[in-house]
Design goal:
This protein is of the alpha/beta class and 153 residues long. β5, α6 and β6 form a beta-alpha-beta unit. The protein has one domain: 3-Layer(aba) Sandwich (Rossmann fold), CATH 3.40.50.620. The longest helix has 13 residues. Helices cover 40% and strands 20% of the residues.
Length: 153
């Protein structure tokens, strides 16, 4: 099964999952240097449903958001690492600065973000709730971040 998919393919897969009554969870991020905090977030996100879809920022998007020195790891490698995790079912890349386009097209049953985001700051929260889904904020592991790792080098 191909786990890194285009948005077009993910939309078709999502339709099939909905017909089968599967609960779909979505989260997103840069996942530049995968660490224990990322893994904990993904494991918790996966626990809210049957299928976990991860939206992954493109390299150009990461540069705009994080600066010219990022990403450290290119998209293809980040996607491959995420897709290899047992808890991740699908990885979908996006080139915009936010995953709003993916979220509005997939309308996941559960949208998960880290608790460092206020509910009002979570992109796509309103459309997910309007479609009958829920938004969950997950507590992050203290002291775990890619920026912290990079700063320590």
């Amino acid at each position: 099964m191909k786990r890194v998919v285009s948005l077009k393919d993910m939309i078709a897969i999502r339709r099939r999952l909905k017909r089968k009554g599967r609960k779909v969870v979505f989260t997103n991020g840069v996942f530049d240097i995968l660490h224990a905090g990322h893994v904990a977030l993904l494991e918790k996100a996966a626990s809210y449903g049957d299928i976990l879809i991860v939206g992954l920022n493109s390299d150009a998007s990461v540069k705009r958001l994080k600066g010219e020195s990022r990403p450290v790891v290119p998209f293809r490698d980040r996607a491959k690492v995420l897709a290899s995790l047992r808890v991740v079912d699908y990885v979908v890349g996006f080139s915009q600065d936010t995953p709003l386009n993916i979220i509005t097209k997939l309308l996941p049953d559960v949208l998960v973000k880290g608790a460092d985001y206020k509910l009002t700051e979570i992109v796509g929260a309103e459309c997910v709730k309007a479609a009958g889904g829920k938004v969950v904020r997950v507590r992050l592991l203290k002291g775990r971040s890619t920026s912290r790792i990079l700063d320590s080098l």
